[in-house]
Amino acid sequence: MNESPRDPRQVVEILSEALPYIQRYSGKTVVVKYGGNAMTEDTLIDSFARDMVLMKEVGINPVVVHGGGPQIGQLLARLNIESRFVNGMRVTDAETMDVVEMVLGGLVNKSIVTQINQCGGKAIGLTGKDNAQILARQLKVEHRTPEMTASEIIDIGHVGEVEHISTDLIEMLAERDFIPVIAPIGVDRKGNSYNINADLVAGKVAEALKAEKLMLLTNVAGLQDAEGKVMTGLSTEQVDALIADGTIYGGMLPKIRCALDAVKGGVDSAVIVDGRVVHSTLLEIFTDAGVGTQITDHRD
Ligand SMILES: Nc1ncnc2c1ncn2[C@@H]1O[C@H](COP(=O)(O)OP(=O)(O)O)[C@@H](O)[C@H]1O
Ligand SMILES: CC(=O)N[C@@H](CCC(=O)OP(=O)(O)O)C(=O)O
């Protein structure tokens, strides 16, 4: 590589500028939702893993909840199984559920764990089935097409919503310097598996852990207004208005809803972060500007 050497004084100055942020977040929990679209390039996975390790080293407790939608889609395509979505949720029959569990609980979870461990961290991979920590129930989806006069409730298979999160295993690991990495697979009281949207799991985990911050890494620069301009910060009231006028739609809807629920449920702030930016999580935590859209339940 042909990089010019950095002035050591600059490096020290940058480190020193991070001090107030390190003090602000030290001992606090930050839940990071790492979406499948933000793990498509090796450099992004590596910078994400390094960021998690650095956070842990300075006394912050990162808890990772990951997705893997595109990765599930790839394996389904190889097996000639069609991917179908209703309201942003994957229609999940028994065969698809097997693939979801293999990809999220196996391939994706273990590759994030390995990458963090390669960077010197101590990552432990879990699904919601471990300690039955993500108790789920079937999600009933309300569906309506323009031709329909009224909406109907449809069954999209093994798709779940969170009923309860048990935090004891996550807290025990975090206290012992481990970084928990959680796949969004839930289980009901009978032992049935559920495929849950990773944003929803991250929001509920953040609420249950009383996290300081929820970071949702995605493939856009942030929440855009009607003119396409990224909004840096907004309150819960503004979000409600943007949903009502249709500015927020599609995959952003569950993301924003879970961010709103999390801040209403006691998480200090939720932020939509551009996961395509290298070191996006550190930029968000350790700089004033941040890199995405922040949602808070208070005006300060
Ligand atoms: N107001 C908005 N601002 C930004 N993106 C939006 C907005 N409304 C809808 N979207 C869409 O939401 C998408 C992000 O959601 P999604 O694709 O589900 O992300 P992920 O896979 O990371 O969970 C964006 O790529 C964009 O197409
Ligand atoms: C019910 C449902 O749709 N589950 C998602 C779970 C993975 C996910 O949420 O992944 P991303 O965050 O990468 O989109 C799915 O099957 O794709």
TrEMBL record:
Subcellular location per the Swiss-Prot or TrEMBL entry: Cytoplasm
Recorded metabolic or biological pathway in which this protein acts: Amino-acid biosynthesis; L-arginine biosynthesis; N(2)-acetyl-L-ornithine from L-glutamate: step 2/4
PANTHER family named among the record's database cross-references: N-ACETYLGLUTAMATE SYNTHASE, N-ACETYLGLUTAMATE SYNTHASE, MITOCHONDRIAL
This protein's GO CC annotations: cytoplasm
Organism (species): Salinicola corii
Matching SUPFAM superfamilies: Carbamate kinase-like
Keyword Transmembrane carried by entry: no
CDD domains: AAK_NAGK-C
One GO term (biological process): L-arginine biosynthetic process via ornithine
GO molecular function, one term: ATP binding
Occurrences of domain Aspartate/glutamate/uridylate kinase (ranges): 28-274
Gene it is expressed from: argB
Keywords: Amino-acid biosynthesis, Arginine biosynthesis, ATP-binding, Cytoplasm, Kinase, Nucleotide-binding, Transferase
Positions bearing the site annotation: Transition state stabilizer: 33, 255
Family recorded in the similarity comment: Belongs to the acetylglutamate kinase family. ArgB subfamily.
EC number: 2.7.2.8
Catalysed conversion reaction: N-acetyl-L-glutamate + ATP = N-acetyl-L-glutamyl 5-phosphate + ADP
Principal location: cytoplasm
Record function comment: Catalyzes the ATP-dependent phosphorylation of N-acetyl-L-glutamate.
Keyword Nucleotide-binding part of the UniProt annotation: yes
Sites where the protein binds substrate: 68-69, 90, 195
Name of the featured protein: Acetylglutamate kinase
